[in-house]
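User: Run a structure prediction on this.
Assistant: Running it now.
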Amino acid sequence: MRRQSEPKNNIDNDDMSIKYRTLAASPHTILKCRDRELPLHERTHIMGVLNLTPDSFYDGGRYFEVDLALKRAEKMIEEGADIVDIGGESTRPGSEGISEEEEITRVIPVIREIYKRFDIVMSVDTTKPRVAREALDEGVSVINDISGLKFDDEIAELASRYGAALVLMHTTSRPRDMQKKTQYASLIDDVMESLQISVNKAIEKGVGEDSILVDPGIGFGKTAEQNLILLKHLNRLGELGKPVLIGTSNKSFIGHTLGTPVNDRTEGTAATVAIAILNGASVIRVHDVAYMKRVSRMADAVSKAN
């Protein structure tokens, strides 16, 4: 293990009620991830997707071999990715998941080689503590948990122990049946309440206030229309007091809206990225880094225009 830090920022249970936090300083100033700090206040940051799976909805099987994965990582870094998000288990709707052993076999060799060759922040897209721990030992500094700690809150303990950043996403269930659970009393309020519970849990486990991102979980337990509503009202998530990560890249709600197949959703993705940034997103998770980097620069220019 290269680096390790002690748990910190524990708070009293009295402070853990479901209420939206506000910080004295802007939560969008920096993101602390181990020995790095990302200046989120300067511009939108780009998280490039590296799927090491044979069955992901967009690029399944394309980067399954280590050499191909490394070439893809290098290209994303050259195109301007700030974070490379490495995932070994498909979370597309209906997917059944894989074992810890299989996920480790897929991601650890690639993480190890990226750490040796490139100076880049790495994220591991996992809900499994053992996978997260081994990835952290190999140099990962962000854990991207699609469950928002609902599947296993040991993820938060690991993030605290290593000083890693933690992405907390909203979902209604596991991928195999999440699209059967799309009923909400009030979509925006329900998503925010769930995310606040996740944030509170992370802080209770010792994760730093400035090491947490929230993600509303576009496509996870939501209909196409609900995804559009979340994007339209994304600025509401600012009430949580945490920077927002958004992942819309090539997802099915874009295809549903435009009537396009998965390999023809670039313009739709660009529109959602621009809308998300103008509504407060600090990090965008995308497949096409070069294209969406330009989109984000333009949206940033509009957002900062005075």
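Confidence is low (pLDDT under 50) at residues 1-17, 21-27.
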